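Q: What does the assembly look like in three dimensions?
Context provided by user:
Components: two
Sequences:
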Amino acid sequence: MLKLSTKNKKWLEFVLAMTEKEIKARYKMAIFGFLWIFLNPLLQMLVMGFIFQFFIPIKTANYFEFLFPGLLAWNFFSYTVTKNTPMYINERALIQKAKFPREAIVISVILSNLFHFFIALVMFVLWEALIVHELHWWRWWSIPGIMVWLTILTTGLSFILSSFNVKWRDVNFGVQAIMPLWFYATPVVYSLDLLPTWLNRWLYLNPMTAIMEMLRWATLGLPINWISVGWSFLVTLIIFGLGVYVFKKESPYFDDWV
Amino acid sequence: MCLKKKVLILTIGYKIMNELAIKLSNITKTYQLHHEKPTLVENIFGKRKKEMFTALSGVNLEIKRGEKVGIIGPNGSGKTTLLKLISGITTPTKGLVKTWGKVVSLIDLSAGFHPDLTG
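A: Here is the predicted structure of the complete assembly.
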């Protein structure tokens, strides 16, 4: 069993309680409730899959199959970062009145979205296992690892943006403007081999590229350039380190600015 | 040398712990004012100097265990700032806050409520 000190135990309990609140509050008063976890990316995929298969000549047997895992990962990333950026401003009532670990707010949003992402992914895996019987099982097992990477990236970026947004509210507007652009800078609807080779390499500076490529490697068995993935990993580590540093420096003074 | 110092501080800390509940030493808290809407040009070129406001300056306070203390003062004299520093909601610009035991701030009744989850 994992032994935790009282302090860590209390911290974990608090984070989990906040996460539970996030999950419960998300689909409150919605008739379809938790069905939206799957319904939302499904609708998105149908629309995008329908449109983009005419524009982008991707040599894949099933474009929907190509699109769906990447879309789930992208949704997790963009939704979490967009939601987390103004989170300390939205929760100012709590921040001004009580002392609690400030990181719990951001982490609870990440965990609750991770929960949704995980459920949708499991349904996809089940779907694939039932319909497409030819699976690369050993590759499927790498998906949790990809999810951990994606979570580290999302956490780092959430910490940076939410901490800066406390002092400069422009950050929130910037994120809202950049996210749709970032979507097209990430091979979600297209694949990397459609791009010229020189651009191909630079796209790996965007860590989301590696996530997409690895998901496709795991689910569809597409080839992947592991050296470029290494660069993405390096960028991820830098973002995460920077996030923790900025958050540690800024979080004691959140109350002065909210 | 360094270890000896640490041991010394620890023993002093232990002696104080038996009597003291809250100890503030040389607390200073400055806020940066931002009441005026800064214009973009001024912000970018950094020509506007930062307007600072010192809410507390060099405050020393010791509250012993079991003592009841009231803080009185006119508006804007730093009562809330002092309480926020003691409860750990914010951090002093200079100085040290030490508390022994459990510090609970009286929270506004609706602070932790989620609009969708409350009745």
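Follow-up: The longest strand of chain B covers residues 20-32.
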